[in-house]
Amino acid sequence: MELLRFLFFSSLEYIPMIIFMFAIFRFSFRSIIPQTVFICLLMSLFSHTVRNTEIAQYAAVLQLILFIVCIWLLYRVHWFYSMVMGVIGYQSYITFQAFFIVMFTYSGLASIEELHYGSIKGIILLICSVGVPLLISYFLHRSAWGFTFVPTGNSIKVKLAGFNLVIFLLSLLSIVIIGALNYFYVSNMISSFFVLSLIQLVILTSMIYYSIKKERLEI
User: Fold this and answer.
1) Of 41, 72, 82, 165, whose CB count within 10 A is highest?
2) Distance CA 146, CA 164 (A)
């Protein structure tokens, strides 16, 4: 029963992450619902498996890598663009969640220990973290705003130069930052978590900035 509850709530977190990722990269969501359900369950099961092990502090990095691999294999996107989509989607959701975590803890509404699926405060955090990206995704879809430079198919060739190289390096840096964020969160080091969250936001903004420049270049 505990496993099923964890899979349910954890999957609820991955769904808005993927929907937001598809919205910002102008991908159709309806045609890949089965793959999305599989990815959500796989990611949730992986998270449940590693959370009480010696590698729990590296769970976020491992989950992101698994997420990128799933995008590459199941959505059939080139590995470079899978990394770009995965990092921006994952990092955006983490940014939303980090904002609410910091707001809850610094305002005294909840402590880190209270923010889990088994508590009312944890459920409120989940609702906030899920609701905001879904709402933004809706407006992105309605306004037809987003990036169209990601091609379908994983057999294309990508040259790591110019904007591609910059975005690739920012993606690698993002993976490291996300791993450090998870470490500080698990260690209850809120001050370091807050500072690193700001750094993560700067990197995410930089990735979006260079993605916009790449979009304009390829129009």
Assistant:
1) 82
2) 18
